[in-house]
Amino acid sequence: MHLFYRHEGTGFPIVIVHGLYGSSDNWLTVAKKLSAEYQVFSVDQRNHGRSPNSDDHSYESLRNDLAEFFDEHHLEKAVVMGHSMGGKTAMSFAADYPERVEKLIIVDIAPKDYFLLNDESQYYLHNHILLAMLGIDFTKIESRKQVEISLLEQIGHPEIVQFLLKNVHRNKETHQFEWRLNVPVLYDNLDEIIKGVNARWFEDRLPIFDYPVLFIKGALSNYILPEDYPSIRRIYPEAKIVEIPDAGHWLHAEQPQLFMEAIWNFLHLKRLKY
């Protein structure tokens, strides 16, 4: 699959992989800053942004898409950074193509099955979000404001709604608003998105020393918890874990300066506190 991407700068490549409901647009500021020293590729994963849609949304397919992207752009080796679902894509790609990864940066996601949280599982949050998105009848929508009102009634959480609204666009042919996301397929594959690339998946790949690994977590996010650290270091014994204060899951937007400091320190091989 030929993924849509954005390109900034020259030099050694960095490939940025966004999370669920995201796109390369969400990483424009980070990519611009990194392009001062690196060649930055920000991709849209399948069923997101401007990349093609598909009925398949497994981590195997996402990993293969990334491998194809490396081949298509003649990237022998790169720094790979992934956020949330994109972090799992990045971990999967790095585990199967270690020779193509210079460094691995994982943003606010752990290599675990999030169903294990039971009632606090991310599954219930995302199931609720996707059902609300599926419930939008765009034949009756004349403005983004109507979509916003509907989502706020269903979801609440204004910050999540504003993030989702970035995926609303007007179809040039039909002149009707629609989702850029392939919402039905994401809903059908939510189990895989939440459960995949977990500790069990890594069992025959342990331990991983092939490339330096950095995990960055938001202090206010529950995607990486202190009890996840032993599992992370069982897979990546030399992994560095940095916590960004006063930041939730979208920490690169909430604390951009601290986020970039953590990235630059890692890229420049400075000692990190963790």
Summary keywords:
single chain; 274 residues; alpha/beta; Rossmann fold; 2 domains; 7-stranded mixed beta sheet; two-stranded antiparallel sheet; 11 helices; 37% helix
Molecular structure report:
The chain has 274 residues and is α/β, with parallel strands linked by helices. It has two domains: 5-113 and 197-267, Rossmann fold (3-Layer(aba) Sandwich); 117-191, no CATH class. The chain has helices at 28-34, 59-72, 85-96, 122-134, 144-155, 158-165, 183-188, 190-195, 229-235, 251-254, 256-267; strands at residues 5-8, 13-17, 39-43, 78-83, 101-107, 168-170, 177-179, 213-218, 240-244.
Per DSSP E runs of 2 or more residues, the count of β-strands stands at: 9
What is the CATH C-level name of the largest domain?
Answer: Alpha Beta
Strand arrangement within the widest β-sheet reads: 1-3-2-4-5-8-9
Mean pLDDT: 94
Instruction: Estimate the strand proportion.
Output: 15-25%
Q: Give the distance, in angstroms, between the N- and C-terminal Cα atoms.
A: 38 Å
Radius of gyration using CA atoms only: 18 Å
Major sheet characteristics: 7 strands, mixed
Number of domains: 2
What would you call the shape? Answer: globular
Briefly note the CATH topology name of the largest domain. Rossmann fold
CATH superfamily of the largest domain: Alpha/Beta hydrolase fold, catalytic domain
Tell me the CATH architecture of the largest domain. 3-Layer(aba) Sandwich
Q: What helical percentage do the residues reach?
A: 25-40%
Number of helices: 11
